[in-house]
Predict the 3D structure of the following.
Amino acid sequence: KAGVTQTPRYLIKTRGQQVTLSCSPISGHRSVSWYQQTPGQGLQFLFEYFSETQRNKGNFPGRFSGRQFSNSRSEMNVSTLELGDSALYLCASSLGVGNNEQFFGPGTRLTVL
Amino acid sequence: AQSVAQPEDQVNVAEGNPLTVKCTYSVSGNPYLFWYVQYPNRGLQFLLKYITGDNLVKGSYGFEAEFNKSQTSFHLKKPSALVSDSALYFCAVRDRGGATNKLIFGTGTLLAVQP
């Protein structure tokens, strides 16, 4: 069974641009979560989706948004990029919501110049 | 608020020696605890979890963790370290407040195993 895939793997943008990252969960998984990883702040929760509904949102500005499609694939969008948005963005999928372990993708490395 | 702490930024151990990576938690109610490992330029890989039951949890790659309620700890252990175990290890607690998969991570501990 294929794992969680994230595209693109690497991205370079300039300040003020917007970016869309994609995540395809493991087949059959309906829950997708997004995390931002930076050297300074560590791993921080962005949002969580289940059956196309956002169930939880982290403490990030409104420039960060996401959605989930009927096939459980998810996208996150960051508008008006800032230098501080440079990070590894990780997507995790899970069968459902609760005590299931989450399986992480390899991440998208975003660099904002 | 739920939180976990990893007091050591780095742990050094010789190959073949036992290793311990420390984690303490602060939660309201029963904790749901996890350990993940991250290799360079990779995502996180699940190692093990504690939900309820036996305090000694066995996981992937020979790792185990001991849940200690009185000390609010969930230390990761392995009897004999391998050079290939060198990686960044994260302890995490599942957030409370309804059904959620949200994980709150510790700051990570870099494990370096010397040959």
Remarks:
- Residues 17 and 80 of chain A are 5 Å apart (CA to CA).
- Chain A touches chain B through 26 residues (CB under 8 Å).
- The mean pLDDT of chain A is 94.
